[in-house]
Amino acid sequence: MRKLLATLFLIPIIVSPQSTSFDFRSPQNIKLFADNLFCEGDYLRAVEEYQSIQNILRNDTINFKIMFSYSNLGLYQISNNSLQSIPGTSKFKCSADYLYLVNKFREDPKGLRVFHDMPLPPEIVERRQKLINISYFYDAEFNFDKNYILSPFNDEIDRQTVSLLYDLKTDPPYKSPALAGILSTVIPGSGKMYVGEWGDGITSLLLTGLFAFLAYDNFKADHSTRAWIFTGIGAFFYAGNIYGSVAAAQIFNARVDFEFSNGLKLFLDQENYFLPDYDFCN
Amino acid sequence: MISVTKIFVTFIFISLVAVTSFAQDPFEEQFNFTKKLYEEENYFDAVTEFKRLLFFDESNNYSFECNYLMGLSYKYGGKFSDALLHFSIADIQARTKEEKFDCRIEIIKINILRRTTYKALALIDSLVNNPKYKNKSDEIKYWRGWAYIFSDEWERAATTFSEIQEHQLAVLCDSVDNDLYNPELAKYLSIVPGAGQFYTGEYVSGLISIGWNVLWGYLTINAFIEDRLLDGVLVGSLLWWRFYSGNIQNAEKFAIEKNLKITNSALRYLQNCYNGNKP
Fold it and tell me: What is the residue extent of each domain of chain B?
């Protein structure tokens, strides 16, 4: 009888040794799964999982990862609200403080400057200064000394990039729309050539010249109807050439601004907003 | 004589054995829970739970099902690249030729939806050439027809659907094909200014085109008649020719635009009103 009972008792253990005891939703397993999602870059799901165990495991790494995930999702305000969950004694405090500043910068670059005297450890102060100096590039009025802007950047490649951005900001290669208009008034097409649109400029010159010639030639031959048709078309092309030159200069300037902002964004993305490299996934 | 206590203890043990032996495996439980989320069209949560199951399922028992259903969830969420990734993994994990076939068909459907129809057609060809799927030739042809629809080959789509007795789709594709304008014909008709525009039903544009060509043609010919050669050459080469070639390009453009409208309207009908299988 005893043997029979012992055998019966062992059956379930043999049949399913692990499965019956596995809990998908134990805090430890949720954490493991969330870490995997975080490393996959699935921040939205990772943050949901972390939040479900945030109050159970009370782990600074989890709190920082939540803050980091929200920042990567572009939810900067919510990310910054998570800062309170990271105590001053935590080893992530410095990183969290800096991430807070990065979030402020990404919300509004100029808004970061309010935090210029926030007490921070030296390595973070240097990163913050880099961001503050970069934030000046977003101002309409820009009259800073180049050495001042470059001062927090020690890496040679970074210095070269920031120096290039500084030059583009202080002396953008704009074209004057007024000058383009005047040039095209005097010599049709020359305004477009000034902006660099040589093909359009030559076409404008030829077309306006052609109609002017046709109008003149027909007036000379006493074909007044045809002459007036050509005069009208010529005048239309002439006015269009002036308007087109002014517009071309404005478009050129907008392109210069766009390329500057794009370059700035590319630089910040490449530098990851000067965030340190976190080793969460190795 | 067996005592009552012994009988009671035996009963308890047998009950325990029964309960633990037949209790649902937590992995199976998780899979069923996730599948339910999927069936309720709660795709975001379904994907989370499928990912959870895949992460902990070291034996890969649910790898095919999870990846296949994740693929479908992503597809319904419009995330075609993610869907393709999971269907491809499911294809590798498939245990039977039917499972493999289903994955391939889903991959084909995604390629049809993404309009990478050349990939869809290449995959369809590979299924056709595979002797394992000889008995699935109708289904393969059905999706070939859809691939032709999405690559704007309506005539071939109609032929393909006719071969498998899909009359509704065959008639629709045939009627779309009949309604389509031939851009090449529109271009060649425009040798007579305005004719291409008339062919595409753009009468006002056709009349304007005729007007411009008559005006510049008249001025050019008139200049030559009056021996004003320079006038004639300049007006003829720079103005008449410009409006004449513009008239040809314009007619071709109209035909292409009209075709786009016709095909979009057919696709909208298929999306909203057709009840059969759709990609």
Answer: 26-93, 115-179, 183-271
pLDDT at B26: 85
Q: What is the pLDDT of residue B166?
A: 87
pLDDT of residue A6: 58
Report the pLDDT averaged over residues A110-118.
83
**Cβ proximity of B90 and B68 under 8 Å:** yes
Share of chain A above pLDDT 90, in %: 61
Interface with chain B: mutation pick from A4, A8, A51, highest number of B CBs within 10 Å: A8
Q: What does pTM read for this prediction? A: 0.76
Question: CB of B219 within 8 Å of any CB in chain A?
Answer: yes
Residue A3 has pLDDT above 70, yes or no: no
With CA atoms as reference, the chain A residue closest to B55 would be A33
How high is the pLDDT of residue B254? 95
pLDDT tens sequence across B103-153: 999 999 999 999 999 999 999 999 999 999 989 999 999 999 999 999 999
A22/B56 Cβ within 8 A: yes
Question: Chain B partners of A232 at a C-beta cutoff of 8 Å?
Answer: none
CATH class entry, domain B26-93:
mainly alpha
Note whether A12 contacts B21, CB cutoff 8 Å: yes
Search chain A and give the residue with CA nearest B7.
Answer: A1
d(CA B119, CA B111): 7
Q: Does ipTM come in above 0.90? A: no
Residues of chain B with pLDDT under 70: 1-24
Q: Distance between CA atoms of A236 and A163, rounded to whole angstroms?
A: 46
Annotated domain spans of chain A: 177-266
For the range A33-42, what are the long-range contacts, defined as Cβ-Cβ under 8 Å and sequence gap of 24 or more? Answer: A33/B51, A33/B52, A33/B55, A33/B56, A34/A62, A34/A65, A35/A280, A35/A281, A36/B55, A37/B51, A38/A65, A38/A69, A38/A280, A38/A281, A39/A280, A39/A281, A41/A72, A42/B51
CA torsion angle B249 B266 B148 B115 (round to 10): 80
